[in-house]
Fold each of these.
Amino acid sequence: MSVPRFKSLGAERLALIALSLVLVGAGLGWRQPMNVDEERFLGVALEMLQSGNWFIPHRAAEIYGDKPPLFMWTVALFSYLTGSPKVALFLPGLLSAATLTWVLHDLGRRLWNRRIGVIAALLFLATYQSYSILRTGQIDSFLCLWVALGFYGMVRHLLLGPAWGWFYAACLAMGLGIISKGVGFLPALMLLPYAFAVHQRWRGVVALPGQGWRWSLGLLWLLAGCAVWLVPLLVSIAQGGGAAELAYLKEILLRQTASRYANAWDHREPFWYFFVKVIPQYWLPLIFALPWLLPAWRQQLRKRDGRTLLLLGWVALVLLFFTLSSGKRKIYIFPALPGLVLAIAPLLPWLLKRWFHRRPGWRKVFTAVAMVWFCLWFVRGWAEPLKEGRNPHDTLMSEAARATGGAELVLINWREGHWLFARQPIVHFGFTGQPNADAAVYWLRQHPTAYALIPATELGRCFNAEQARKLDDTSRAEWYVVGAGADNGRCQPTAPRRVYHFAWADGPGNLQLAVQGSGT
């Protein structure tokens, strides 16, 4: 396979990293947060900046207990540094793309040679899932940074070591990955095929007998990574935490980790989901080579090649780990991709030679197709924001502010976009298990100068439709603004159990950086 050649290793590596930044960063600054995950995480990050509450994330003044805060910290930091939250949201993914490219190039070079390192980096950048994850403003685009560093440290120690410093760096990275998302420990699964390879005396693995105390120090480094957040959190709760803070601690440490894995309450899919619905699409174009790769891998394993065993064993364990959980999303198996790419890269020159040795002209066709493939990803990066357009929640909340004169707005059945793009003070009664229009009726009767944002499905029961003002639609509902005068008197609500007040200091409805003032 013809790959770019540079005189120096540094120039080669910088060129590959630059390519990753160009491809993944195409269109950066044009695109708004569009899906619920992006709206939620950007909103949480901006609320941290505004309130100064860094250890317990909040969503419109209510504690948000689904995820640890490291990703939101990073988005908040980039928002502060750049002054542009809609750019900051996507910078963690860009950082991950550069890191993964470096990791694969360096490991490919060290395990085989420079040519294989280049191939590994290019294969990763050519894979569809790399773009579907790294271009998003989601936690998984940042999680893979820590998984990549953990993976790198493990390989340096287990296959190229002994390198205890890299092993401890891997453990620290896994700890930081855990406080990004609970599955940050995934690189540790590599220890299982490693133990088997050492026991069976496979070639290429580094046996380290009689050093149990050094292995055990890895756990301390992992805990140190987790402690970056957990220790300040525990101290702050001990000094003044109430029932809500204690409930958050239980939620994030237990329910959102082990309980969610064992008995997921959303994204439930059958066991074959990844193999039928995800891999055939998101691991393109790699899967086209599987009919030739499988027997080649089998031959490598027969030769007791420890490199192949550890890489493929880790990929298989990551797939198994997520397959055993009833909750599955296409993004979950992305951490396995670097290991798969490294297992493919050394075989690709042999594979291309086998395909094209009697048809040399096809090698040029293959090179041209690869270049077109990369160009299409770059073009798509710029075209995607134009296709998506303006976030409908942005339009909706802008209309709501004009229709109400900026008065207090009650939200029911709301999504994160309503809060992120709000241009006026909002009132809500909790995100999970949201009450219906009765709660809005109660509030408007107590506060007649306020308004409520009501979906069409809830409008007619408690309000006169002819006195409501129709706003723009979103993908989920048609929306109306109503005032106290639209109350039809048919609903007799009781006081809601919880009431939350929130207002952006500087109007993140326009995605301006809000660092002054506080939510209430």
Note: The radius of gyration is 26 Å.
Amino acid sequence: MTTPLVFGLVIAAAPGATAQPALSGKTVEYNVLATESGGVDAAVAAVKASGGTVVKTNRAAGLLTVKAPENGFTARLATAPAVEVAAKAKVIGRAPALRQAPRTEVEKENKSGAAGAAKKAQRAAAGMDPLDNLLWGLTSVRSDLARTKQPGDRRVKVGVIDTGIDGNHPDIAPNFDRALSRNFTQDIPFDELGQVVDGPCEFRGCVDPADWDDGAHGTHVAGTIAAAADGFGISGVAPGVSLVNIRAGQDSGFFFLQPTVDALTYAGDAGIDVVNMSFFVDPWLYNCQNNPADTPEQQAEQRLITRAMTRALNYAHRRGVTQVAALGNQHTDLGNPQPDTISPDYPVGTEHPRTIDNATCLSLPTEGPHVIGVLSYGPSRTKADYSNYGVEQISVSAPGGWFRDYFGTPQFRTNENLILSAYPRHVGVEEGNIDEAGNITPQGVALGVQRACKSDGTCGYYQYLQGTSMASPHAAGVASLIVSQYGRFQRGNASMNPDAVQSVLEGTAFKIPCPVPPTIDYLDEGRDASFTATCTGNLQFNGFYGHGSVDAWAAVTRGRPFL
């Protein structure tokens, strides 16, 4: 699946040339960021002159992926005026392995004209689907009401930057834009330490099709945004918009820099109206400028991630992309972050504890420019214990599920407190929740896995998850309804200034005050003191709910004053 690399390579400077550091060691990948003044072509020339090979180029962000020996290469580039920063990305492994367990257990805690006529027809058909009674998030954001006026326009395109989308899932296929969908990743079977990352490649060449999802995360997100309202299975917040897979995540859930930047700039180039980003860019939960716990090489890597992501987010914003992101599941006030104990999370086992300086450390994309940060609450509208919070980064709040909601009642620790959405059948089989015949196993029943089948035998499957990853797509769905209602349409495409979309989203959000008292300790729910959170702010804006909970009905009926 991967070609073994040659180790011990040494390249000496040519006779008569200016003395340069010798190149030695195994071949590894680097990210190289070109200066905005010098340009990409000059950076490519500098890479070649320094003994590297350019593998991929993103001209919009000025980001290069390069292969070069692990020793001496960055020292050579240090004097190149066209290069802003260079840092090692990841080493390519060569050992056999099997699939890795998921990175996080937060999400699966329960494992313990003609156009006008068409538009009218679409609106008339957008009702509720049979399993929607299990989707408390839909009614919480009032999608059931909103779709009677605006179910979403097919010309509005929502990009899901995630682990992929199962474009053949019967609830997603009607709204899936196969032509625009892209996969910017390559499967990584194992890392340089021989540890499993994605496991064996499912397809020749180790590149999955653009309608495939082995992680299941992206499919769940996509279903919440825009599962079709067609009398079958479930429906999404905006059941009439189009879904575009812009894959940047590995099967295992890692999101590395180059694919993420490629996905963001593609969104800008392809006319995507809204993107959902339920992830952080690996391997650093926080990218710090000069954290003393990190090596100089690690510091350079984090500076590169920060600068490249800032460029990509700005590029997408200039091109009209509204960017919605999960606030994160580290139960921390992002204005006063707790110590980081999980970075770097790749390769697994290389992490070290770090004190995080809020002034010089950023979690990306959540803390990047032009990003709408979304907090997660449970069905009682209590802030979920795992959710990040704080007035510094929050924009709005949305249903993300909370397994431990309703303490002291029969609803405590029940699947129905989570968010139900689409589930790829092949992942369900692999995880033991669906058998080869398509039946839900006893394990799947215990986890609340659902099945819906059509008269022709086609079946769709659905699983319960929780997390800010599940809150963010509720907000992205409402954002796409705002574009559908107030955007401009020309030649089959929609457009709306992202700042205007954000203004309507925040302005029409349902105001929720801080709890009284404002501090919640979550001890009864079985959490330790590190989960204790204090809400600051007022009814108009606070650290637990931001400007309020997203409200689809208010957005499409009362949003115009905020334009």
Note: The chain has a mean pLDDT of 92.
